[in-house]
């Protein structure tokens, strides 16, 4: 059930990708509004996750999870009935807000339910695999709904999942929360939300030029606010993000890896769907199905990686996975305007899926390893925020790279489009290679130190 929650949270980051052309015509969206349909969700989600994690820790993880589910379902209904671009973008932002409550609560519940041992490894392998496959599943489902129903069903499809989650959550979950004096860090919440929002918005503006005053201003303001946030967190008694969560070398490395993985799964896959539909002429459903080998590869690799994780620890997987993923993206960069899907797209997708499967299985386990009983909500929020903010920033960077390589033409030729898509894949491959270097440098130590042991203190259950 908790993994199903993670599925819809990740899935909603990509399910509208294939529906965007139809939604753009239906609502008369500009190209800028079209991008914000994706960015609004990731921005609200990523910027509010830390606050959502603390609310889950302090107010109660089950209660926060259920409220998040209800709000997410209502926002999905609103988005499905949108009559303008403003409506749709606002609804996507509200979806992200409630996802920021739901996601860290679900991951924190998983953490306290499986504190250590083989069961924890298995639980996190399932959770991580679902997170990894969710983006690709969203593309398939989005294509199916867009072609045979309507793009609006890409939002309404969340409603039955929310109903199942609510029923199961009420019946099966036990309440838990952090003990002690739990006060909210209001100033920290304001600065981190404003900082992340400004940073992501600045990177979005970079599509129109990195040297523009507004681009530089928003990025600089975002960095400054995040520096202020770190200063605040080092001085308040009850920080929104205890610095011990991110300054731990191994966890910090895992958060960086999640950011890069998010940029690939959210940003790079968007340009793959554009190539399939615009250049190769695939219908929405066929374009979605064409991404399915990525999901299948992740699903096949996950159980194998789980066994390897227990035997060798996470370090080999977290170094090897990004290397394999980079090779897959390099293969995708070889696309041509008149090329074959079977020869130019499929091999890269399969190799990318193998690499992502190797990476996702240990990633969240390591990101939450050794977290103090007071902090699982904050740590899980940081893990999710890393992926969403990474996806937002990655999408803006890939968009800038694409626009530069394709010549910024509004109606570019297929050759120019392919040049842009290929450049975006190369940028993503460089990011994955950097992830391997980060893993090599930071994910160090015996496997017993990298994975949880049985020394976790008890967590209050209500």
Automatic annotation (TrEMBL):
Keywords: Cell membrane, Membrane, Transmembrane, Transmembrane helix, Transport. The chain crosses the membrane at residues 35-52, 64-81, 93-112, 124-149, 155-173, 185-203, 215-232, 253-272, 278-305, 317-335, 341-361, 382-403, 423-443. GO terms for cellular component: plasma membrane. It is found in: Cell membrane. PROSITE patterns: MFS, SUGAR_TRANSPORT_1. InterPro entries: EmrB-like, MFS, MFS_dom, MFS_trans_sf, Sugar_transporter_CS. Residues 1-447 form the Major facilitator superfamily (MFS) profile domain. It is a multi-pass membrane protein. Gene3D superfamilies: MFS general substrate transporter like domains, Multidrug resistance protein D. GO terms for molecular function: transmembrane transporter activity. It comes from the Bacteria. This is DHA2 family efflux MFS transporter permease subunit. It comes from Labedella endophytica. The lineage of its organism: Bacteria, Bacillati, Actinomycetota, Actinomycetes, Micrococcales.
